[in-house]
Amino acid sequence: MARHGWRSRAAQIKAPDMTDSLTIRRPDDWHVHLRDGAMLEAVAGHTARQFARAIVMPNLSPPVTNVALATAYRERIVAALPEGADFTPLMTCYLTDNTDPDEIRRGFEAGVFTAAKLYPAGATTNSDSGVTDVANIRAVLEVMAEIGMVLCVHGEVTHADVDIFDREAVFIERVLAPLLADLPQLKVVFEHLTSEEGVKFVENADANVAATITPQHLHINRNAMLVGGMRPHAYCLPVAKREKHRLALRRAATGGSAKFFLGTDSAPHAREAKESACGCAGIFNAPFALESYLAVFEEEGAIDLFEGFASEHGPRFYGLSLNETRITIERTDCSVPAQIAADGTQLVPFHAGETLRWRFAG
Ligand code: NCD
Ligand code: ZN
Predict the structure, then answer these.
(1) Angle 5-13/289-299 helices, nearest 10 degrees?
(2) Which DSSP letter does residue 113 get?
(3) What's the DSSP call for residue 131?
């Protein structure tokens, strides 16, 4: 990955970073797709190995739209965990135009829902039942603001007239800024942030607005998808954007601000569903997520700020306790396989075929 002047200076100043291992509070993943059925069985262990908790996205087919469905899904996740795993799935409710505010309140108060997810209809995988206009869920959002429940937002507009690379910036202008002006207390996590506009918006917003950042958006820009051939395994939504956006995200993630935290957006799709004339969006990064993020923090000379991003900012924003156990990541080569078997097919992980410089040791 190219180095930049200010960054290598920082790396020199932070010479104590040159340790052989890093022990930190056990991290959580604040945005993950665990899927269902055989795929869930195949991927749950990868997330549970590195993370204590995860905010589980509800975009199943059909989506997780009520307390009963979330309770049943949580049980299936727990049943799919490897023997002895210490992992808590935190469930989300998929918002639709018809979500009942009482159901949201009931699910939150019962400890079933940790958050609710706003997918603009048609924005991404399994979002067809998403919200067509936030005005339709005004009563739901009002309840959420009142009870302090987090709204996780897929921040892209879907109108055909908006260029796909501008969809996040336009969402801020047309949807998110007006929404927060209307409900200034609402706790919002801008999920998988991908743009400089997004970084600025979150930085300038009040403390009730935060964002998750994925490993892929810290590592790749849109060239990774399009140079030298179409590369479906670098395709996810929101799409990676030009280099200046990647650099803005790296500054945000590694800058120590409590508004930014780890959310992998690990989104497995079978190899054949990605390598297709109409390939699915999503990058499967769960198996080497911490190694991937830590490479970025090392390159930015900010290893000392990794624990905050991975293990502290998220729970503090959600109002949850910090994990008490610790994990260690060692500085040693870690080869990422070309593919990982799952559900009778193969998943191509992020960094497939590369060697990362850190390895999660448990
Ligand atoms: C996600 C998926 O496949 O469920 N895909 C993705 O590219 N990130 C959906 C999402 O988070 O947008
Ligand atoms: Zn996602």
Answers:
(1) 90
(2) E
(3) B
Q: 349: which DSSP letter?
A: B
Tell me the C-alpha distance between 269 and 258, whole Å: 31
pLDDT confidence tier of residue 6, bands split at 50, 70 and 90: very low
Task: Report the distance separating Cα 330 and Cα 206, nearest Å.
Answer: 37
311 to 116, 209, 261, 316: CA distances (angstroms): 21, 18, 8, 9
Atom in ligand 1 nearest the alpha carbon of residue 154:
12
Taking the CA of 156 as reference, the closest ligand is 1
Whether 59 is in the pocket of ligand 1, judged by its Cβ within 6 Å, is yes
Dist CA 182 CA 360 (whole Å) = 44
The three-class DSSP label of residue 266 is strand
Q: Annotate 285-337 with DSSP letters as a single string.
A: -GGGHHHHHHHHHHHTT-GGGHHIIIIIHHHHHHT-PPP-SEEEEESS-EEPP
pLDDT tens for residues 51-63? 999 999 999 999 9
pTM score, whole prediction: 0.95
- The per-residue pLDDT for range 303-323, each reduced to its tens digit, is 999 999 999 999 999 999 999
Q: Which residues are catalytic?
A: 265
Model confidence pLDDT, tens digit, residues 339-353: 999 999 999 999 999
Distance 108 CA to ligand 2 centre (A): 21
